[in-house]
Every structure is written in C-alpha cells, then in structure tokens.
Amino acid sequence: MDGRSRSSYPTWREPTTWSDRPGPTTSPTTRPTTSPTTSPTIAPRPRRTRDVTAGTDDEIAREQAQVDVVYGRLDDLRGQTRARLAEVRRQGPSGSPQNRSERDAFATLYEDRLAQLEAVEERLVFGRLDLEDDSRRYVGRIGLTDPEQTPLLTDWRAPAAQAFYRATAAHPDGVRRRRHVVTRGRTVTGVEDEVLDLELLDGDGAELSGLSGEGALLAGLRAGRTGRMGDIVATIQAEQDRIIRSELGGALVVQGGPGTGKTAVALHRAAYLLYAHRRLLERSGVLLVGPSRTFLRYIDQVLPSLGETGVVTTTVADLVPGVVADGTEPDEVAEIKGRAIMARVVERAVRARQRVPAEPVEVRIDGRRVVVRPDDVAQAIARARRLHRPHNLARVAFVRDMLSRLANQYVSQLAFEVPADERGEIVEELRSTREVRIALNLAWMPMSPQKLVGDLYSRPWRLAQAAPELSERDRALLARPADAPWTPADVPLLDEAAELLGEDDQADRAQARAAADARAREVAYARQVLEQTGGGAFVSAELLADRFAGGGPALTTAERAAADRRWTYGHVVVDEAQELSAMAWRILLRRVPTRSLTIVGDVAQTTSPAGARSWARMLDPVLRGSWRQADLTVNYRTPAAVADVAGRVADAAGLPRSPLTSAREVPDALVVRQVPGDELERRAAAVAADALEEVRDASGGGRVALLAVAERQESVRAAAADAGLLAPDGAPDLDAPVVVLTPLAAKGLEFDVVVLVEPAEVLARSAGDLYVAMTRPTRTLHVLHAAPLPSGC
Ligand SMILES: Nc1ncnc2c1ncn2[C@@H]1O[C@H](COP(=O)(O)OP(=O)(O)OP(=O)(O)O)[C@@H](O)[C@H]1O
C-alpha cells in the first residue's frame, strides 16, 4: 500500500448458502466473489479451505448463549453508568464554582460513556476467532471484560482483532477458524465460518458442525438502502483493513472507483485512529471534511455506531466560524476563486491597505503643527512589516512608531524639556485626535476578512490592483455587489485573509500564559481524581482537566475545535477530495500543520472545474510530493452490468478510471428506454413508482432516486409529485423513499434504484457527473432518454 503501490484483494470468501432465522430479506441473486467471471484481483479459492455445513442450529444456540452473556454485561455497565450519572446530578447546583465545574465535567463524561454504550446495541458481537492455542476470541464493536477483568469481547480496532479481517489460508496468523456471527437485535440468526486450518477440516465433524451461510458481506450488500450509510465493521475486507489501520503520520491518499468503500473506510479509519492514538487525538481532535451537508447527513450515524462521537464533521464552506456561505455562483466563477494565484491576490490586497500618502497631511494640535510625512509613513511601514506579523497586529507597531514621530515634532516646538511621563500624555492626545487617526488609518487600515474580500469583488479597481494575473474577463466574472451572500468558494479566501490580517490577540496571549500556569496543577488534580474513581479507562487526566477548566459540560474537544478558526487538529480526513481547489487545500492544511491526513476520492468522479484529474498534479504542489497512495479495487455497490457500462462511458469520455471488480451481479440491473421528449419526466416518475413498489421492504428500507440535470429538477420534481412520490416543493430528504437530485448532489450517496433522465444532458455538463450518476444504484439503473445516448452506453 505504501509507496503509491496498488494493493491486491487478498481475501477469499467461500460461496455458501446462508443459514438464517428468521432470514434476511429476499433480494436479487448475487455473484459469488469466487466466480471465474470476476476480476483476477480476487485471489483464487485456496484448495485447502472448504466450508462445513451441518448442525447449524446447535452452533447458533451456542453462539446465542455467548451473545447473551455479552449483552448482559453491556446492560450492567449501562446500569452502573446511569447510577453514577444520577448520583452526580443529585448533588445539584450547590457548592463552590470549582465543585460545580467538576460535577459538570463528570456529568458530561458519564453522559458520553452512556451514549457510547447505547450506540453499540446493534451487532455488538459479530465475529469469533478460534486460535491455534485452542482459545477463542470474540470480536465486536467495543471491548468488554467481565467484573473479574476476563475479556468477553475484543474491540474490532484492537491489535488482537486484526486477524479477523486479515487472516487468510495462506497467512492464517494463528487463526484456525474465523466465524461471522450474524445477529438481528439480540438474536443470533446465522453463523458463517471460514476454516483456515486444514487439520481442523479433517478432524471431528461434530466439533465443526453448523457452519453455513451465503456470506455476511453479500447479505449486507443486498439489504435495502435506508437513506443513511451504515457501518461495515463486521465485514471489512483485507485491503480496506490495511488502509484503516495504516499509520497515523503523513498523508495517505485512498483512490478507488465508485462503491469501493472509500467513505466507509474513511469513517472507520477515523474511529480506528481515535482508538489507537486516543491520548494524542482526544485533545487535538479529528476533522472529517465532506462535500456537502446532505452528504454529512448521509454518513452521520456511522461514527456514533462505532462508539465515537468526538469527530468534527464539516464541509469546506463551513470551516470559518461565523461565516455563512449559502450563496451560489456559476462553476466558472468558483473555479477562478479556487486558483492557487488567489493566495497572492489576497496577500496583495492586504498590502494595499498599507499605503504611503502622496502628500503630507498637516494636523494642528493646541495651536501647534504636526505633519504626517510620506517619508515617515514609508519608514514606519517598512519597520512594521519587518516584524512579519499579521496586518492588524503589525498595525499596533506602525501606529506606535508614527505617534512617536509625531510626538517628536510636537515636543520640538516646545520651549521646555518634556519629562518622560508627560510625553506619554502627548502621545495619547495625538492618538485621540481625529485627523491623526484618519491619516494613520488611511496609511494602515484595520481590516476584517469580510471587508477585505468583499471590497475585492465590489471595487473593480482594487481587484485590478491586486490581481494583475487575472484576465479582464475573469475579473469581470468575480465582480458582485458588496452585500451579495458568501459562496462556498469564498470561504478559503476569507480564511486566507483572516490569516494574513490576524486579530489583536494580546489579551488572549496574556490569558494563555495564566492558563498554562494553572493547567499543570489541574492535570495533576485530575489524575488524582481518576485514580480514585477508576475513570481512567475512558478518559485521560489531560482531557478531564480540560473539562474542569473548560467552563462547564458543553465544551467537548469537538465543540471547542468547531468554534475556533485557528484550531489545529491531530488528523484530518477529507472525502471526495478530488473536488478540492488549490485554495481549499490551503484552508485545510492550515488546520493540520502535522500533515497527518487521510485523503479519499476518485479522480474519475471529479465534477468541479477547480478539482483534480490526477492526485500528483493536485497534491504535489501542496504536500511537496510527500504522500502515499493505497487503492481500493472492488466495487461493493453497483451491479456488474451497470458498472461495466458506466466504465465504458467513462472510458469514452477519457476519464482516468480505476480498474474495478464488481462484487455483485444482479439480473436485469440495467434497463434503457427511449421515450418521446415530451414524456420524459412523466415516464421517469412512473418507472420510479414501479421501482419503489419492488424495493420497499417492511422495515422501511428501499430507496429510489431520480437524477437529472439542474435545469430539469423542477419538471422532474413536479412529475414525481403528480405521481404521488413526493410532496410538491419539498426539500430533498434523504429519509424519504424517493428523492429528486442532480448528479452533483447525489455524489457519495447510494440508492436501490436510480432513474437517470436524459444522460446526454448530464454528459454535456460533465463526464464525471454522468459517471457518478450511473454508479449510484445497488440494484437497478433505469436510463430514460429522448436524445441519442452518450457513447459507451
Ligand atoms: N467491506 C464491506 N462490507 C460491507 N459493505 C461494504 C464494504 N465495503 C463497502 N461496502 C458498502 O459499499 C457501498 C459503497 O461504499 P462507499 O459509499 O463507502 O463507497 P465509495 O467508494 O465512497 O463510493 P463513491 O465513490 O461512489 O461515493 C456502501 O453501501 C458500503 O456500506
């Protein structure tokens, strides 16, 4: 994986029949991953290994007994935590502020712990390893021990669980048998074994009985979509596991075609890193950046289900606290704002606010004359710049210097010596004189990022001065009224400006010094408290001290980080990273000076004109060539027939597509219909209605998406509303069974069925959009067209 090499797909899975009670929902047939028609990247079936099928009910009953024990322990721990929380709350709001703050901090800790214990209810236990030394190890969502500290369940992220994901017959890693335990609620519904030890197969049949199943992985893939992403913790594949557990340091790029689990892997990696490097990351935090708020909603249940609530999830547009970037603009305008040169433009715009006046400015004070001379201003500017501090902070030095020069002029006109303390009064008088203030402000204007960037757009001469590299056309495209709303592409520029302008942080720094003194004492105290309460297993003394000092219960690391523009994270995960502009990379890298990054994406799915078609071209300039790449090669989402045609379309359009193997084959997965142009929307809605009937299941699963270009959204939505599929004018709602979206908005999401309306129009906007649209379904892609189909279809 390291050194930008391609990983292979080493996991072999037995094609088996699924032992199940009451049974998973029926679904289209699947192609076993060992089928000869699948890609050569899937390792051939090892001949030494075979599945054993007998006595399933006994095995299920045996596993049920163990699963009951583990859930029993979970219930006990929940009960204990609830009791502790109630005890803390009972103490009420009395006592000294220190006592109250400690109580609040403990209440938050117990609440967090309880939330974690509640979140792991589903599929708490999902695996068992039978080891060469005849011991057994159960693998699950979190680690649990019994009251005597005997292990009951191994956290999936622990080193001891790694073999569950990686062991193969060729490299059994001390494992004789790997068992997938499938549960629904707290009931074991099936087991599936992979036997990695030949001797075991030749041994006692009774001991090995009851092992059958069609494969936990494929069963999971066949389940109806719910509109929200689920975790894959029970069926992580070896090539995915290697990425999830890759070392923390440096920048890791995860390239993979559609449906290869990039998002799933990114989320599981965030959870893994928090577990494996908790000391480091619990206080600095992990940031996860996604392409849109819709996407963040789509994934928002995954990390909590893995027992992690401390990750800050956001979009680039939301990275600057206090800036609401909900304006829209044409792609070509966003592309200009994303260019690397805009960093220079902002820098020049800042320097333009440090200006030597053309003429001397004369000011009269108490009948005496002082002059703000261009020479003095030039010298004071040069001296202040040499400090290399941000504009608003260096301004303090500039003003002090200028006032001193003006005071000298004033004093030289007096007929007597001025004592040092009275000179200070003269300086203060000069400072408060309106004309002096105006003259100094004109020379070195205090600035907010919003004013600086807003002026660039609304005052063409300022842009012309700051951006000589941009063509007149480009500059005209950037022009807009001063009160126009901010757009997502403005946010990196505002952050750049904030960085160069700085805030007057003198008070902050004094406070920080005082806080540092207090902190050592607080950490020592927190350590003592943890020793007494036994809370050290799930929180460090440093974090507890943060919470004592943090002003109350609300301030978790994630909350403090999200509210602070200058927060630097211990690790940043970026999904759909191929879309990021050069300026967006700058804002992100500022948040992770250690360059500990997981960068996830597919350069064939790029839709933004500011995005990348090559990782090297995108990342070499920003990471100076210091990054490693891992590839994902198996498409778990899209049926083979759909993936094949999407691949042909991508190739015809010249997209840099990764070679892919589809894990699933679904009969009749691709349906193409030509219809009259004036019937497109109505027919598409009818197809969606029929599809919904087919995929809807009793538990609320089953999702259908109608995808069309932005210009058709309204008419498709109206047709879908007429067909009773969605409320008229309703906003896109991921929880609804049917959604109407643009391909861009569908990025990263998936549905059971996609109805794609007029692919030629999608292609006209961007080939990446068409590739994205075609690769969203897990079961069926319906293509409806009036115009000729794009080549490759
Ligand atoms: N090991 C796995 N076990 C079970 N399901 C998996 C596994 N890997 C991926 N999946 C499923 O495959 C689907 C696609 O995963 P995901 O959305 O992470 O892919 P992606 O590479 O980010 O796709 P895209 O680039 O198209 O957005 C999801 O439903 C995910 O849960």
From TrEMBL:
<feature type="compositionally biased region" description="Polar residues">
    <location>
        <begin position="1"/>
        <end position="19"/>
    </location>
</feature>
<feature type="domain" description="UvrD-like helicase ATP-binding">
    <location>
        <begin position="235"/>
        <end position="639"/>
    </location>
</feature>
<keyword id="KW-0378">Hydrolase</keyword>
<feature type="binding site">
    <location>
        <begin position="256"/>
        <end position="263"/>
    </location>
    <ligand>
        <name>ATP</name>
    </ligand>
</feature>
<dbReference type="InterPro" id="IPR000212">
    <property type="entry name" value="DNA_helicase_UvrD/REP"/>
</dbReference>
<keyword id="KW-0067">ATP-binding</keyword>
<dbReference type="InterPro" id="IPR014016">
    <property type="entry name" value="UvrD-like_ATP-bd"/>
</dbReference>
<protein>
    <submittedName>
        <fullName>AAA family ATPase</fullName>
    </submittedName>
</protein>
<dbReference type="Pfam" id="PF13245">
    <property type="entry name" value="AAA_19"/>
</dbReference>
<dbReference type="InterPro" id="IPR027417">
    <property type="entry name" value="P-loop_NTPase"/>
</dbReference>
<feature type="region of interest" description="Disordered">
    <location>
        <begin position="1"/>
        <end position="61"/>
    </location>
</feature>
<feature type="compositionally biased region" description="Low complexity">
    <location>
        <begin position="21"/>
        <end position="44"/>
    </location>
</feature>
<keyword id="KW-0547">Nucleotide-binding</keyword>
<keyword id="KW-0347">Helicase</keyword>
